[in-house]
Amino acid sequence: MDMQNFEGAVNAILAVLPNRETDLARLVRLITAAAYPTITVIGKYNHGKSRLLNELIGHDIFSVADKRETIHLAEHIHQNISWLDAPGLDADVAAVDDDYAFNAIWTQADIRLFVHSIREGELDAIEHQLLQQLVSDFQTSQRQTLLVLTQLDQMPDQQVLAHIQQSIRDQIPDLNALSVSATRHRQGVENSKPLLVEKSGIVKLQQAIELAISQVPNARRHEKNQLFSGMQQQLTQLQTELAQTQQKLQHMQQQQRQDFDEGLIKILDKIREDLHPILDITGQDDALVPDSFATMFKNTAGKQQRAKVQIAYSRACIDINSHLIRHGVVGLPEDQQTHVKSLDTVIVAVFGISVKFREHLRTLFYSDVERARLQREFAFYFEKSAGRAALVEQLTQLEKQLGDIAQAQTALKMLEDAA
Ligand SMILES: Nc1nc2c(ncn2[C@@H]2O[C@H](COP(=O)(O)OP(=O)(O)OP(=O)(O)O)[C@@H](O)[C@H]2O)c(=O)[nH]1
Ligand SMILES: [Mg+2]
Q1: CB-ligand 1 contact for 200 (6 Å cutoff)
Q2: Does 411 map to a domain?
Q3: Which one of 85, 117, 197, 353 is most buried, counting C-beta atoms within 10 A?
Q4: Residues 255, 177: one domain?
Q5: Do residues 106 and 195 both lie within one domain?
C-alpha cells in the first residue's frame, strides 16, 4: 500500500469520523514508522529541552539558547532511537509552534519527556493540564511520559528544592518525576568526575528511558489494536444507529402512504354514499333544462337542481381537500403553478374546472376506472408534498451516509492489512 492509498483510506475514514484525525495520523505513523522508537521532549520554552536532549545523546546536536530558540521540529537519529526536539509550548506566543509540539507528542512519539525547569517552581495550569492528558493517554495507548525536572543546579537551597519536588509530586501523583542538571552532567563528563555525573540525575533518567524503550514494541502493538478496534467499534455503532433510523423512516414512509390511500378510499366511498339521493333521479333531469329569457329571474326547477348538484360537488371537494391538508398536501408543486391562483389547487388539477352536471359527478365518483385515476393522481400530489419530499431527501442522505460508512470500513480494513 503506497502513501497515496494511505491518504485515500484516511480520508474515507475521516469523512465519517472527523474527530479521529489525530488518531488516524498516529495510526499511519505506526504503520509506516521505522522500527526506531521515537522520543520527544515537550514543555515550555527555555526550560532546557534541547540541552537535555544533547546531554542524553552525548553530542551538541540541537541548538540551545537563553531565549525562545527551537521553532521547528528537529529530528536526530542516534543509536537506533529517533530523538525529536520540539518548540516550547506557549499558546500566547506562537500557536504554530504549539502545532509542531502537539504533532510530536500525539502523532510521532512513543515516549515523551515532559520537561519542566525546577527554577520555575510548581507546574503551571497549562503544564498540569497537558501532563494529566498525557497520563490518561497512557491508560489507553500505553505510550509513556516521563516527567523531567531540569536545571536542578539552579536550586542551591536543598529545602526549597525538596519543597518544590514535593509540590510537583502532589500535583501529579501518577508520575514519578526525575530531577536532572545538564550542566552538572556536562561538567562531570568533561572533567571525568563520576560523582558529578551521578549527581546530575542524567544516568537515572537514561535508565528510565532504557526501560521505557524496551516496552515500546508491546506498547505499539497494543496501541495499533486499540486504535483499530476503537474505530471499528465506532463505525459499527454509527452504522447500526443509521440503519435503525433508516428503517424507522422507511416504515413511516410506508405508513403515511397507507394512511393517505386508505383515508382517501373512505372519503370517496362516503362521497358516493352522499351523492346517491342527488344522482338517483328518475325521469327528466331538470338541471339540464336551460334558463330562458322568460325565466331569467325566476327560481326554476332547473336552477334548484343545478344548485343542488353544485352544493353536493362542493361538499365532496371540501371532504377531499381536508384529507389532502391533513396529509400535508397544501398546493400544487411549483412547476405546475400558473398565474391564476384560484386554479392552482390540487382539486382543480385532478377534477378539472367544469364539474357542473349530474353526469360529471356520476363519471367522477361512480366509475371504477375514474376512481382508480383519482387515487393515482391524488397520491401523486401527496408524494410531491413538502413533507414527503423531505422524507425522501432524508432517506437519500442516510443512504449516502451508510455508503460512506461502508467505504470507511473497507478503508480501515485496508489499513489493518497493511499494518
Ligand atoms: N544552569 C542550567 N542551565 C540550563 C540547564 N539546562 C538548560 N539550561 C539553559 O537554559 C537555557 C534554555 O535551554 P534550551 O535547551 O535552549 O531550552 P528549550 O526548552 O529548548 O527552549 P526552546 O527551544 O526555546 O523551547 C539555555 O541557556 C541553557 O543553557 C541546566 O540543567 N542547568
Ligand atoms: Mg529548544
Answers
A1: no
A2: no
A3: 85
A4: no
A5: yes
Q: What is the mean pLDDT of each run of 10 residues along the chain (419 residues)?
A: 80 96 94 87 94 96 86 91 90 64 93 96 94 95 97 92 96 95 96 95 97 96 96 98 98 98 97 91 82 84 90 94 95 84 86 86 93 96 95 97 97 92
Alpha helices in 62-124 (DSSP H): 95-102
Pocket lining: 182 vs ligand 1, CB cutoff 6 Å? yes
Which DSSP state fits 340? -
Query: Do residue 88 and residue 207 come from a single domain?
Result: yes
pLDDT at position 284 is 84
Going by C-alpha positions, the residue among 407, 394, 397, 398 that lies closest to residue 16 is 407
Examine the domain organization and report whether 99 and 206 are in the same domain. yes
Q: Are strands 178-179 and 38-43 parallel, antiparallel or unpaired?
A: unpaired
| Calpha distance 77→199 (Å, rounded) | 27
Burial of residue 53 (number of CB atoms within 10 Å: 0-12, 13-18, 19+): buried
State in Å: Cα 272 to ligand 1 middle.
96
Measured in Å, residue 208 CA sits from the centre of ligand 2 at 22
- Domain range for 339: 239-405
CATH of the domain at 65: 3.40.50.300
Taking the C-alpha atoms of residue 319 and residue 322, their distance in angstroms, rounded to an integer, is 5
Cα 403 to chain centroid distance, Å, stands at 15
Based on the domain organization, do 249 and 389 belong to the same domain?
yes
Query: How many structural domains comprise the chain?
Result: 2
Q: Do 316 and 386 lie in a common domain?
A: yes
Task: Give residue 94's pLDDT.
Answer: 52
Residue 140 lies in a domain: yes
